[in-house]
Amino acid sequence: MSAVPRTLCVVSSSARRPRPYVWKNPPLRLWWFADMTTVICPYCFDRAQAARLPYRCLMTATGVRGGKPCDPERDDVWAEFMGPSVPPALRMRGPVFTPPRTLGGMRGSSRVACPGCGVSTPVRVCRRCHSDFPSDYCDQDSRIIALVGAKASGKSTYVGVLVNELRHRVGRAYDASLAAMGSDTQRRDRELAEDLYDRLRLPEATRPAAMGFNDPLLYRLSLPRRGRLREGSRHTALVFFDAAGEDLGSAEAMDRYTYYLRAADGIILLVDPLQLGSVRDQLVPGEGPPLPTVETPPQQIAADLAAQLRAHGRGGSRGRVTTPMAVAVTKTDMLRPLLGTHSPLLRNASHHDGILDEDGRLAVHEEIRTLMEDWDSGALRRQLERDFAQLSFFGLSALGAPPPAQAPSDAPKAGPQPLRVEDPLLWLLGRRGLLPVSKPGKPGKAEAGIRGAEEAGA
């Protein structure tokens, strides 16, 4: 966290011209405001003030008090949170301590000396679950994106391709950069990239919560500041939490993700159209890979999701959930026989001048909405529009083509050629004011604020 500025501006009564005044010793009250920065744990979603977070000792032998490192201690708080799969040896971790309430600590110092060995540590931990935060996670704003979808809807593949697009095609359009935060995300990030782009293999399915906790993927998104006198960068931590499809089969199973869903700034619901009977009936048999096994109906997942959010304070006065919901129909490459030759689903958005094209989004929204009207008599579309106040429909393909019929676990031989995978996330970021959005009917002119909930039905 950056320190509170020490330079104030004082206006002279005679000249009425501002002159700088250097405040050598700002009062404690100013540092108190720095102490109020809130950090959301990306693992258990507990909220805490940054300066009140505990630290974990590194257990290194370079201390100033005899040179002896601290011994590891049992961290039962962390082990209980991670689940029964944690072996006893891994429960022994660096001691957790709370820093003293000094002025330096209130400024949000990035390193604090361990009271046991004297070695400074940058590792801050969650006070509730004792998970370690990446070194720079607490230094920036965070946006939690919930990724929800039935089994076999392609969530892991979607994330891997989305990250690649944000780093290359989309990142270039918005002058943005994306970096994995923490060793766990960096490792999984490499594995996803190697599977999809080197080995041309689809990622393994997400494990159910009953088998242990699924760590979120943490990324640092850096965007340029826009406008006059706002040169520099704006950094945001993106937290992607992937729920296994098996955990969405009932309201009871989904309860494991209550804290995650309640804390989400936005939800991306992946809908596999091949799970809908009316879509399966329209596809020509024998063309493309075998159809997937029918899993939990998307309509049931949407209903259970809305019920969980309402039960935990995310319902509005009119009975609809207020969390922004991006409904993404996946595998649009399989829907080409159902699309017109000029369908916007057949090409990527241009992202001209680094601005979100609102007219383009609305065109996609209306096309998907029209398609959904014919799918199972429009039941899913009606369910979503009755339950969510801020809703937009999207269509995307993470691979751009079906997997080979003889090898359904492989990516296409040409590698992923995605279509519109970034659209749901960029819409959510635009609603939070992180990206400029063009006004409908006025290409090139961006609105800085977030459109109100009353406009969010489209």
Describe this entry's structure for a reader.
With 458 residues, the protein is α/β, with parallel strands linked by helices. The chain has 2 domains: 36-138, no CATH class; 141-455, P-loop containing nucleotide triphosphate hydrolases (Rossmann fold). It contains 13 helices and 19 strands. It has a 7-stranded mixed beta sheet with strand order 12-13-14-11-15-16-17. A two-stranded antiparallel ribbon has the order 1-2. It is globular.
Concise account of the structure shown:
By secondary structure, this protein is α/β, with parallel strands linked by helices. It contains 13 helices and 19 strands. The protein folds into two domains: 36-138, no CATH class; 141-455, P-loop containing nucleotide triphosphate hydrolases (Rossmann fold), CATH 3.40.50.300.
